[in-house]
## 1
Amino acid sequence: MVRRHEAEVRERVLIRRERYLPLPGEVLVKRGQEVSPDTLVAKSEVLPGEPYVIDLNAGFHKRLTPEEVDRAALKRVGDRVTTHEVIARMVKGAFADVLVVKSPVSGTVEFISRAYGRVLIREDPRSALPMAIIPVAKQLQVWPGSLRMYLTVREGAEVRQGGVVAAMPSALGTLEYVYSPISGLVEKVCSRSGTVTVVRPARPTMLDAYIGGTVTDLIPERGAVIETKGAYVQGIFGLGGEHHGLLSVVARGPGEPLTDGMVTEAHAGKVLVGGSHVPLAALRKALAVGAVGVVAGGADVADLSDLIGQPIGVAVTGQEDLDLTLLITEGFGSMPMAAPTFALLQRHDGAVVSINGATQVRAGVVRPELIIPRADGSESGPLAPEAEHQLAVGMRVRVVRKPYFGLWGTVTGLPTEPMAMETEARLKAVELELEDGQRVMVPEANIELA
Amino acid sequence: MRPRTVLAIDVGSTTSKAILLGVKDGKFGLIARGQAPTTVEAPSEDVMVGVRNAVRQVEATTGLRLLDNDRLLTTDRDGAGVDLFVATSSAGGGLQMAVAGVIKTMTAESANRAALGAGAIVMDVISIDDARLVVERIRRLKEFRPDMILLAGGTDHGNTSHVLAVAEYVQAAHPQPRFGTGFKVPVIYAGNVNARDYVSDILSETMDVRMVDNIRPTLEREDLEPARAEIHKLFLEHVMAHAPGYRELLDWSRNTVMPTPTAVGSMMKLLSQRRGRNVLGVDIGGATTDVFSVMDGTFNRTVSANLGMSYSMANVMVEAKPERVLQWLPFETTVWELQNWTGNKMIRPTTLPQTLEELMLEHAMAREALRLSIAHHRSVVAGLKGVKQKRSLDAGLAQETTGQSLIVMNEVGIIIGSGGVLSHAPRRSQAALILIDSIEPEGITELYVDSVFMLPQLGALAEADPDAALEAFEGDCLVPLGTCICPAGPAAERGAIAKVLLTFASGRVVSETVEAGILRVIPCPAGEEVGVEILPGRGYDAGEGKGRRRLGKARGGEIGLVLDGRGRPLKPLGRGEGRLQQVRSWLAALEAYPAEAVSGKGGEA
């Protein structure tokens, strides 16, 4: 059994992509609507809800026993709370002072730790506050003008929820702290009001269509399904996320590398196609001129590590912070692009294409892809999942490991006995006639079907 | 009474492997094997489909009738069926556990060791000092859907509040079971006995709480066995019973389906016990490498995720550094080429080396993957941390830290290598050299490879009939490579570092010199036992102390006796002509590859 050629190339197929928001939001398209890759499909302005831990011990200035936690807590797990609602109350001291602890957010009580006297509230994303004004001077009972003396953060600093923003020695020789109720950036320190403003960076999520096509289905509050008939190229390894642009075949043939000299200002916003190889200099130049994608037969691991600033270890990619998506069709090193792949890309030179570098070798294999939506021609059915096929004499195959890497040939024999290799190992093998007429024996594990 | 025929099956993540064992030529051993894809996942969602397919292959090979209408036959008068059926399983991701303790380097570490030794895949270790926010800990536990949770913390009669806080995290996360519905996820509590009632109060409503003896009754003592036994019991009761099709497999095997790594551990323990020697085993896979050890009867296991020979190949190089990989090659190549080569193996993990140069590259990577995995194992299998030390005046001058590794190489008597790169190495000497270069045995150490990897099935059989399991293991599974004799000490440039007297079974006595930096092989066939007397030079230790005479026994094998004078730890070779000469001389000494490839006249690109 042999796998299909992994760098799969198909003309005229039905391509379907589900576009899905990570948080609930608004769907902006209608069923049947024609979309282009940059059409907004859905958007969400909801801030992700944060879990809040409220320390009752700190609120009551006392280490509570589990029984005291039970008595003080006014809410139970699962209860809903609103901002500034009292969640715990305690009577303390000789004068029976009533102390209360309030919820800093609206949300649901998820957990009450009796051992540690903590309450965990899951913030309701829809009511998440974009900012918090902390009355530091009031909490420390100091003059607002002296606020900066006690701060442990400055404007522009990042603070985490529960992180200390101010500290002051108390009369008892201990320190009193003021904590930030939310994670965010310190926007303002006001010495007149004695407050510190922490702002949660609002990142509205915009979801585009990624591919040009037709909206065939809607997913309420989350997104839509886009379908198109087009051409499809599956690579073997990629970097970077989704991009789209005009396809520009720069190399003159599948064996020609893409050098930095070949990349010009005219390539801004385009997906460039090289032949056998793309070196770091060309990738950097492509980034500098504003190209959105590069497709090539091969690239060097060292160059790609330099590009993303970290070594390439386990092959799980797609999340790199890159303004350019890279798609390799053959493998690492200098490798002429398979002729059918190059020919397909040449036929669609100038078309709008969508490209995604996400790759995962293990556990639910994901390979990088290039989609040419609405490419001319008749339909040939949906993309089939990778399947295994029985080898037969006469089949056209490609070798994917040295010493014949990248060469195409025809199966001329299927020996039943394992064959001796140069390594002295006896392996299940296939006899091939390569395109140059050479007859060779190759381990079955090292070939892919055309 | 010894069973005449045994059918043993190991249900792996991808393949279910059946073996039929019985008496052949007067010896108990392997009769036939069969394998089929595992069918735990959709579309079949019934493990028995794959199991029956594998058994049918055995039927086809032997002509014996083992199944009747999908039912397993027990031996009858016509000779059909088997006397005993045993099974192991790691399918569906094996036994997946979350572990929680109070202090990361103390109770949480002990709990981690207990779970790993019981054959679990430890998904996360939670402790109150793990530098994560409370919510992160709860979220991690919630996301995992572990098969069970091991909760430890506190010494007996000590502080209870911390372990109760950890129990509350578990309660807050309320993880759901991976397989099946309508039952509670089991939590094994192996912490402070005084906190049992409170833990039960916190957890019993939402989880299935089981109490066992404290894993760390005092700071100075670790007791892993009660927790391990409970894990094994729960694995059968919960995980197996709820996994698709396992109910029938449990019926076939009379409730004795073992987690695969536990079965491997049983077999290693049995071997260690019978031979009276400490055992270290390695199994190098495509994505991960498992290391097993039995030191003074205590079994331990670690899994090095992302150190393997295909999916994880590029990661091995990142962790090991390319220069360390390159030093093992008898030819020059660049870091750049090596990186591309490992990248290509990673993205096409199922391909095999066809040229000698590529084979040597794979073997160089295997050395580094194993070296890193052994280092990981040594760091996990360590003495207890945080233990009070009594100091005398002398000891005060040489202060020792707590938490030293318990894997002392000159106390390891047997090394077993397993996994494709070792078991299928075209020459056995390649496997021997990979093991010696990566594990760096000291003193007198026997070397073996597991040729067919039926350790799990034999481990399961060992529970019922240890003698039969050991006979099959030594006869059909273990391939003796020989014995490595190495006095440990600094890597010297030249000169003799030890004298070795070898007394062969025929009475012949041979005197040999272990030369610095040199590997030599003394032929000695499999089955022959040789008396060894090592007289190490000053500064060298053969297992009895520096410069002290060591007496012992060595066993022959396909390679023979390897005298290793390279010192310990092995010195990195650097680059240049000196390196090439050294590596070529070592490879040539063991005839690891064809002479022309090693000499530099062939094999270079």
## 2
Amino acid sequence: MSGGRADPLVQVDGLSVAFRYAGGILMAVRDASIAVTPGETFGIVGESGSGKSTLLRAIAGLVRPAGGRIAIAGETVGPRRSRAQRRALQFVFQDPYGSLHPRQTVDRALREPLAIHALPDADRRIVEAMADVDLAPAFRFRYPHQLSGGQRQRVAIARALILEPKILLLDEPTSALDVSVQAEVLNLLARIRAARSLTGILVSHDLGVVAHLCRRIAVMRHGAVLEILDVEALRRGEVVHPYTRGLIAASRGYRRRREDNGAGWIK
Amino acid sequence: MTDVPLLNVQDLSVAFTAEGATTRAVDGLSFTLGRERLGIVGESGSGKSTTGRAILGLVPRPGVVTARRLRFAGEDLLGLSRRQWTRYRGRRIAMITQDPKFSLNPVMSVEAQVTEAYRLHHGGGARAARRRALDMLDAVAIADPDKVARLYPHQLSGGMAQRVMIAAMLIAEPDLLIADEAVSALDVTVQNEVLGVLDRLVAERGMGLIFISHNLTAVASFCDRVLVMYGGRVMEDCDAGSLQAARHPYTRALLAAAPDLDHPRQTLSVVARDPAWLA
Amino acid sequence: MTATDELGGWVAEAAPTSPGQARLRRLAGGARHLGRSPLAVLGFAIVAALVLAALLAPLVAQGVSPLAQNLGARLEAPSAAHWFGTDELGRDIFVRTVYGARATLAIVALVGVIVVPIGLMVGTAAGYAGGLLDGVLMRLTDVFLAFPSLVLALAFAAALGPGIVNAVIAISLTAWPPYARLARAETASIARSDFIAAVVLQGASTPRILLRHIVPLCLSSVIIRLTLDMAGIILIAAGLGFLGLGAQPPTPEWGAMVAAGRSVVFDHWWVSTIPGLAIFSVSLAFNLVGDGLRDVFDPKDA
């Protein structure tokens, strides 16, 4: 439940991330703060360049923050993490074509995390992980190029879940997929979340997708968190920031302005 | 019907043969287009993009295009020679694609690209071309045409580049514009601005527009009429406004599969495909 | 139903059921692809012939020793008895050419075995770590790249004495830097990909990431490069032999054989020409194989 008094499982305080490039320094994330309670799926929505993916990567420890603090289960973490800290938090990437090693079969991709953490019963776990994401056993020794986008994304989800993490970070997990495949993957994520009481953070540019899975949503723009609001409030249009209002309107589709149909606009 | 439709397509098929097997990317497609916004929606592999390319005579090598009729403003497009195509392509039928950065020449300034399109099709002096180019940039809602004209593609944002692309395509004043996922890579707020530009061009110039997209919401809210494609065939042909009341099970399933901000559902429906649709 | 039919069926089966089968299917696919290029097949055939000749030299030479002299039959033209003729000591040139494949193959194989691991190690470490380590390793690479192979080999031979081992060391010293650069460039782009980020997030150690995830992806381009470089290595080895700094007489070695026939080349052309042709065809074959492999391992395919 949102707004519960449970201690946050993921807490981000005043986080900034800076990227150096040829012309200077780009502040990809500036002074962002979010708190995610155990069992909730928290949404981050924003357009390109809003810093939403960078924030997620910083939480995962893939990007070094320039300032601020990230705490997982009350423990402050940086980009260097212990194996146990890594295991607690897994990631699903946007591009199902780039997130699987091109020369490794599904079996190998699922076996690797088990080998790293020296978990026993690898074969049983692999079979179960594939069943959990509705992947037929026939796919076990396929290479990524023999799989469709949706199947690859299922492999990526199975790979994240096989370590039994507490937290699942989802970076636009369905934006590269067709609507029908997206529906299957979103249903799968909802089912897994319920079955495992997973805590999740979902990043997307698609308000519909975020609202479907999340109760609370942070709206980001230009690296900053503009506001954090409840999905119900968002649906009712009870938002503080005009940008959020514009984003909601835009995601409902194109609205023809009546004067546009008049003549004389092009000289 | 006394008017000749802008585009009349009867029984259009595109077949690709590889290693002995023939696949039909487009299979018996028919429609007529007036001076309106026609949306073609479908998932990947539905044949929507191939349809757009077939109309422009741009289907790549092993592909074979056949049709009973493919007429543009009463003139037959079938069997045009490469030379004859140049009278149509770019001049009377233009196309914009998903990635403007790919279609724009990285070492030419915006002005050079837009004026080149104009001089290619209309000839005329440099000064006239420049004035026309600035007008065009203004028409696609670029705030400061003088400044933007001097920029190079890498200095443009995605939305800006797509508008420059549209300006370059429209300066020849085509009668038909094919927009293939033209706004899909853009942020939603920018998408709607670019759609606004296209909308005005249709309304004021009487241009025909074929808007190819995977995005049902965009097509339903922007177009006049919609073709829903699956497996190279048309599943549904209806008014965009009545898409929500669509009858074909595929269309209904697609609509129910997309998460909707205003109508939350516990689980999204999964699209079941009936082989009979392609029989 | 023959056994090979069954095997073929198993390899081509729709769903592989073991890692071995999956790997074999990929290899079979690569081999089919390669089979479509006649030039690559020709290259493979010549290289295979070279390897066979080296391994089975005594058999191919029908027991004739490459060192057996017959001063009564000096500089005889090619005939049924001596297919490629005889040299100035009456030794059979066919037999010597066949045995010469051993020296060539030994040099090529040793250089490959030394150069590839060093190049991969330096290159992937530099590309993955970036920063200071990258700078240091790459400057070191530049230093070695600055030595001209043949000159270094000459210096080596002068300092340590001529011989195959010293030739191999000299060639390897100057041959590894391009591999390090290649591996570094590949690693730099692979390291940014999401599938590497995924293993980092699984908690994999850096050596594990390099060895199990990055090196296998660099390997194909390194092997292609090595095959294409083989021609150059063979030529340098032959050059050293020609200058008397490679294999020492009486060991049969193609470069040395060319040199030996130099003084009689106008009257007895075969003495120099036959080993020269051997050098030429084997270099060409390695190039053809390299081109074929490059087509198979095309990154679009990966």
